[in-house]
Amino acid sequence: MASIFGLKLKGRRSFMGRDWQGNQGNLYLDEKKIAWYNDSGNGGPADIDFYDISGRKENEAKLEEIVKMYYKKYPLEEQYKNLEPDVEMLIGRLIELMDDEKQYKKYAKQGYPVIDIFLIKNIFCLGMLRNAFGIIVENIKSISKTL
User: Would you say 110 and 132 are in contact if contact means Cβ atoms under 8 Å apart?
Assistant: First the structure.
């Protein structure tokens, strides 16, 4: 399961909001359920409702520390480099990792154990490089994520 420094989103449900895809589910930190995450996909910020009110400040601090560690290791680039990373941005990245993992598992079942994710004219593409026998496969699929 996709995880960023121990942060996971479990029980994820995706749906179409007014502006884009919405996502909701339980946030886990080090296998402990800490909050409900809800991005309604309606153009506003996501909601993070912590289950343990007494531990809210501690969990918020842990999430902020994960944001700092992640974006120190993987800094924002190009037009995004001037943005200040936050928890919502980190969870968005986690959701992208979950989607990539799901796509990989789908292709692995079809006999493609390796995929490559790359950009062609600002469209993310999945290229299935080689099958289990090392034979190059030229099946490239674009997916709907754009920059």
Answer: no
8 A C-beta contact, residue 30 and residue 116:
no
Paired tokens of 93? 């990245």
Contact status, residue 128 vs residue 117, Cβ threshold 8 Å: no
Separation CA 9–CA 48 (nearest Å): 12
pTM: 0.76
CA triple 121-80-128, angle to 5 deg: 40
pLDDT in tens, 3-42: 999 999 999 999 999 998 999 999 999 999 999 999 999 9
Q: How far is CA 9 from CA 3, 119, 127, 144, in A?
A: 8, 26, 27, 22
